[in-house]
Design goal:
- This protein is mostly helical and 99 residues long.
- The protein contains two helices and no strands.
- It has helices spanning 21-54, 61-83.
- α1 runs antiparallel to α2 (61-83).
- It starts with 20 loop residues before the first helix and ends in a 16-residue tail after the last helix.
Length: 99
């Protein structure tokens, strides 16, 4: 059975990426930083709007404070990611150290 030719077309091997590894790592870090800023900023804004409606008589400042907390947390996370080298997270969220 293995000796018989099949009708499936053979795929050519995929050439490696022309970008350097460091550029790919940097792009991954930027992608993670931007997506984290969007997600954390929108969550902070959402919590601020909810607290504004429920507790603060529809004032604007809780929404802006929530947005600031979310973006600040995303900035701090991105800052750590850019200052440290590439890391892999363990199962409990701690950084794995090679020995």
């Amino acid at each position: 059975m293995a000796d018989t030719p099949s009708n499936e077309p053979r795929l050519a091997p995929v050439a490696p990426s022309s970008r350097p590894v460091s550029e790919a790592l940097l792009n991954d870090k930027w992608d993670r930083a931007i997506s984290s800023a969007v997600i954390r900023g929108s969550l902070g804004l959402s919590f601020g709007v909810v607290f504004s409606v429920l507790l603060f008589k529809r004032r604007q400042w809780p929404a802006w404070v929530g947005l600031g907390f979310g973006l600040g947390r995303a900035y701090e996370e991105a800052d750590v990611a850019f200052k440290n080298g590439p890391t892999r997270a363990g199962t409990n969220g701690m950084r794995l150290v090679r020995s």
